[in-house]
Queue: 2 jobs
Job 1
Amino acid sequence: MGKAARSIQNRPRWEVLTETAIEWLIRLCGISAILFVFGIFFFVFREGSGFLFHGFNVREFFGSTEWYPNSQSHVRYGALALIVGTASVTVLAMLIAVPFGIGAAIFISEFCGPRLKETLKITIELLAAIPSVVWGFIGLTVMNPLIINLFHTPIGLNVLNGGLILALMSVPIIVSIGEDALKAVPDSYREAALALGVTRWQLVHRVLLPAAKNGLLAAVLLGVGRGVGETMAVLMATGHAVQIPTSLMDSVRTLTATIVAELGEAPVHSDHYQVLFIIGVLLFSITFVVNLAADLIVRGIRSK
Amino acid sequence: MTSRKQLSEVMARTLFLLMTLLMVVPLLLIVGYLVYQAWPILSLDFLLTNPKHGMRAGGIWSPLLGTIYLVVISLAVAAPIGVLAAVFLNEYARDNWFTRIVNLAVVNLAGVPSIVHALFGLGAFVLFARLGKSILAASLTLAIMTLPVIIASTKEALAAVPKAFREACWNVGATRWQTIRHIVLPNSISGILTGVILQVSRAAGETAPIMFTGAVFFKAIQEGHLFAYGLFDQCMALSMHLFTISTQVPDVPKALPYGTAVVLVSSVLAVNALSIIIRLRLRTRRKW
Amino acid sequence: MVTPGPTLEIANLRVRYGHREVLKGISLEVQRNEVLGIIGPAQSGKTTLLRILNRTLDDVPGVVITGAVKVDGVDVHQVKDVFALRRKIGMVAPLPVGLPLSIFDNVAFAPRMAGIRDRGELAERVERCLRQATLWDEVKDRLHSLGTRLSGGQQQRLTIARALSHDPEILCLDEFSIAIDPVTTMRIENVLKNLRAQMTIILATNLVQQARRLADRTGFLLNGELVELDRTEVIFSDRPANRKTYDYVNGLFG
């Protein structure tokens, strides 16, 4: 009786060997992500570590606004103005993008018919696909004259410009995560509220927003992460002034823009070059923490 | 519903609609404005001619070809690694702390700013691996940038295949790889393709990662010749070219940067539209 | 040549998922070509018991298995080729599953994966198994249409054909009738009656009458414990060894 079972075992040996090889390749690729994350941190850190441990003044870096890497007499690496530059543009962008993004997420999730929903989602996806350098170009050629004309300022490359562009860039991710957060709120909440006779505005305001607040927080965090790390658009739209802004019309420079603007001219392995890599480490650390926090929250929603 | 409630309802709907439109309308206006400004020079000639006269005239052939090289090579590296990594995570990995760390690493890799990728590419590929500033170094940098999203979207595509199919295969003595090869992969290929195609537009649009690893200000190559670049050459790229002629070169005729922007944006939008079409077709041709 | 000894031996099998013990010391033997019925309410461990046999329990996170489970004298956890073991055991799950392949490829899948490539041999095997599962007449003209488009009852018979396609020695059915209509259930019960001469059958079911109709011996599993295992007539009589058996069989609980 068992003879038939045995007759069905004739996989050619080469096939079994190939399969083993493929499975090892799969495992290797699987752990590649860890290798790359560590690799990125390692190589960026490595290029800046020389100066970091011999001569880098942490207090000056975080406390001073005097950024003079090319000075003949007195080189200073005070990055405070750059940090504030990044923060100001990001904060402004979030102040605009978060309400509008969540508003759009609410509209798509609660007020919209299926066909309009599909169209809007596709449009927002296309908005997200526009490259950063094109946004910077728009900041230069569209926003710039617009701001000069509307606000009568001498230059239109400033915190306002950068903030608006960054807001438009960040909206898609806020809408997407926000919509996920709203979708995760059980329908039973909606049914119960409507049975009680509330208006849809009250439903949103009193039931959905509180219930989805974790997800909405994650959306904001991801937007912040995006904003801090954004490079080309802010490089082209915020001007080139290393200063702490006193108004929205002031030009600033962000951490990311500094690296792009100065890396080309800094001699390889010089102190200046290494400080730029140290800024890279700082950026990596900030976005690492922000994205980690957001992901932990998002994983909490999606698993419910 | 009372009239007060009706009014509140309408107001809420209008408010949120306006907020949405304020996000959506800019897209249409932007694309329209770009096309309008670029109109005078858009032509086949524009695509096939090199930039001339210190980039104040001519076309975008060398940046266009450079971008194509970068996209093709970076995806040729990232797609296989990304798909196999996703296969590992979704089909082989057990639910333990190690897997959680791998997943965390993927998410964090996705959040790394593009300038940090540039620094990494410079430190690792250009200097450490001694590839020098080259198409190869720049493509590898782009590959690592697009890898995490390919992993995430492939995982989603694989997870959409019902578990019951896998269990039915194991019950009849198929190995894990046999199950993946014959049932899981063929039925998730559309989703995987969508994810990879979306990264085409990302790789084409990024500037910072290629700026210090292989893209240059200017390089003249043979016009109209598809194999004009070598793997270890430096190249021009559309994204970098747009940056250059809008900020680094004075007295550029207005239409040129707009033309470059239009070519870049329309290729990106076309590629995204393609992936959306594939996704819609996927929904109708499901086998279960 | 027939291997002597019981086809299946389980000795003091304990299974737990994390801290939850699902099987608490099961011991039993199954003889060649007998039909063993396993009855018991939901969550009593029937599915776990079957899945131990073909080792598809290995993947469940946090599972701990102690005790011996021997098929033809060899412990399943020490067998060299787990895939060969799975081909020895046919498994039919509660919910019907048609693979997203053609009907022909559904039934040819297992032999192909085991290395059989000859078109003629595959075709012969497919027809034989579909006939045994009483599905042949309904699908013979559309063997190349998708298996997922069949009805639930047809898909369950397709699953049986798939299970037969790799010449199993032991056929396990886990509540096979739970999602199909009574007519198909009867058809499949007839299929099982015809198969018993060729293989050992283990039938886990929540329909006690089904065990009564088909099984030579029946075991009553309650909360992970084998309360009683005896000839079917005894289990369904007025005086089974255990009071709980009588209560369950007569619908007083579960």
Job 2
Amino acid sequence: MKKLLALGLVGAAAACGGDDSGRVTFSDPFCADVMPRVQDWVDQQREANPVPDDPRYGGTVVAGAIGEIADGLNAAVTSDYSSSQHQMFVGLMTLIEYDADIQAQPYLAESWEVSEDGTELTFRLRDDIYWHDGERTDAHDVAFTYRTVTNPETAFPNAAFWDYYVRGPEGVEVIDDFTVRIRLQPHSEFLNAWSTVAILPEHLLGDVPPAELRQHPYGSVCPVGNGPFVFVSHAAQDRWVFDANPAFPEGTGGRPFVDRYIYRVIPEPTTLLTELLTENIDVYFAPTPDQAPRIQEAEHLEFQTFTFRNYVMVVWNSRRPQLADARVRQALTMGTNRQEVVDAILRGYGAVAHTSVPPFHWAYDPEIESLPYDPEGAAALLEEAGWVDRDGDGVRENADGVPLSITVKYNQGNQIRQDIAEIMQAQLAGIGVEIEPLVVEWGTLLQQINTPELRDFDGVVMGWVTEFRLDDTDLFHSGRIDQPYAWSGTQNPELDRLLDRLAVTLDRDEAAPLWAEYQDALIEEQPYTFFYFIERLDGWNRRVENVVMDQRGEWVNIRDWYIDPASR
Amino acid sequence: MTRYVVRRLLGAVPLVLGIATIIFFVVNAAPGDPTLYMMAPGMSSEVVEQLRVNYGLDQPVHVRYVKWVGAMLTGDFGYSFSYNRPVLDVLMDFLPNTLVLSACALGLAFLVGIVLGTIQAVKQYSGLDSALSVVLLFFYSMPSFWLALMLILTFSLMARNVWDWPIYFPASGITSTGHDFMGPWEQVADRARHLVLPTLSLALVLAAGIARYMRGSMLEVIRQDFVRTARAKGLPERTVVFKHALRNALIPVITLVGLYIPVLFSGTVFVEYIFAWPGMGRAIVEAITRRDYPLVMAASFFFATMVVLANLLADVLYAVVDPRIRYE
């Protein structure tokens, strides 16, 4: 038995690669070729750029979260939040960055200009950014990235980014090594894509067929970036290790303060909380609302929340006879106490939503006239729409005797969505509406609601994450009614008109009144009962200083975090 | 004996293939596919279609089955959809972690179970026997995941933050974050420290069961004539128990090895989640929810093979410890 244990330990120790110099070794041929160059380059740069004499430099910050960085640094295939964040702020660079007011600022691009007619966008790049294997980042990389993400074979998930761009090789032109021009049609917030889609290295990925990019080891085995942190190693479902890039230029923020940043995957929230409390991790991304008091109580921990771009709603299928009339949908919203839902199931960590426009966004209309919680008003609306309890069974019927009975589906294993369906059932029973909650497995549910020929639901509890460039065309425009996300089947000429105009209105001042109109029209139409925008919670050890987390994401200023020198 | 083993191994081939076939069709019959998990506004149906082509999901299921079997026979298990890497590479990352944990847990469980069971049998009806019975029943009826949380609470959180013990155990992971900068012995010690809590939470539950078996088996043997003869010829009680009785009492317990190996794989899922242990159990559960067909197939293929091999191993061990059993 002892032998067995010892054997196991030695085997386990040997399983993780490492040569005599302490470097991580890679077995994949692509990685075995490129990673030694990265390691050499980092060593050279460490010698050439000594750490500045400032006590804030040094130390390791360890963060933990429940999920993997699923797509790694492969910006061409990313659809998930933490991958995107690590591309934007950790390993790679975007052309522009948003400041706290969501205004574009230079990052990899030091400047940009738009032609008179708005059809040409020219970026001037910095000339002091290097890939971590020593190659310089230039306009060819930008052109390569653009061709790749707009190539249909790549299947870049957020295709809507390129709705008004000229896709493919015709859309991009390299003017000189550090100037690149991109063709587009004028549209609102056209820079948004460039704050999210990070630039990829052409010299490493240029030969990979686009359809095979997703499977390339570049993504999560050995990504080579150009950002403030250099990839060191990744053990699947365990941890990612990044080191400070010693050569990250002053002009883009300079070398990060911490020497090393480690991202750990710990799938069980209770364990994560324990590790935060016992100081084995410094940062816990997105704890659950019921863990908030424990973090707030602990003297050595900091706790913060911010409203996120993620909202939860109940979608009403207006193709159904019970739900065709906007007055019925308004009544369903007015008969539900949404503030109570936020307080009860999120412990208050959420903001009641009125429309799809997040409350922190510039397009949000603070004077918005939302539907109040008003059961009597809801009942009156239902009477007006012809729904009356004719047979005295407590459920309203229309003139044809069809009862106002609505099935609300939610996905299995999602307690919050189940709670929402059940709270609606209880509250709407009071105004003579019968709600039947129904649980469906996630994959099955998506198939039922996404398939245009099927749309097999009355109501469904769902959630969306919006971009900073708001665009609900896929959701509410009648022109997209046969597309997967036209769940509500909305056909409203007023909404169509506003969506069309908003998509191409460049100026925020000009767009603001249109957005106000849009929000009013959406409240009138009530394709969804909007419940709330979630708040993201975060907890971290006070020894990590200068942490900023806001709607741009948790990692937005990770290169400025530093460890209190006294606690190292 | 060799012929027997070869025959059993050959018999296992159609069995494992049959299991793989059933799993393939069941997994593919489940509604939804991997593209659904990337759903976001802005992801058009063209993108979804292209993804399905890139994944090879545009072909009918029987075509994919034939391709899968063909590739598998040449050792190619394809690419994992969720890890974007060759499936075998992914499994090779997780497998050693699971094997280390399972081997330690199984080893500890049998060691503790056999020792306690023997003590109980020898001291039958004593106060010690009853006390151990109560304790063992307590652990036996406790689910691993609950025990795991209690161990974390006690030996990690309370030990460090409240009671200030000189030693406490990490609640998650296989190594510390400073592992790369440690000396070789420090690294081994670090790994061992991380193994303690997950091993205990798996092993204690198993050990309790094994002790019950061991006690029963030992009691049966200890009453037999040859033991009485050994005592009668004046052998010390130690020799009687350890040399004559114990070896014979161990025979039925060996069957348990074959039975517990699969239990360990399924039991590790919870423990791997709670202790953030990057092992096979977690890999397969996540692969199923994300409809990562190639990974699900390869992992279940592996599990099936393990179960068949474990049973074979138990049968062979039988023959080794019990000269009365011969396979012809």
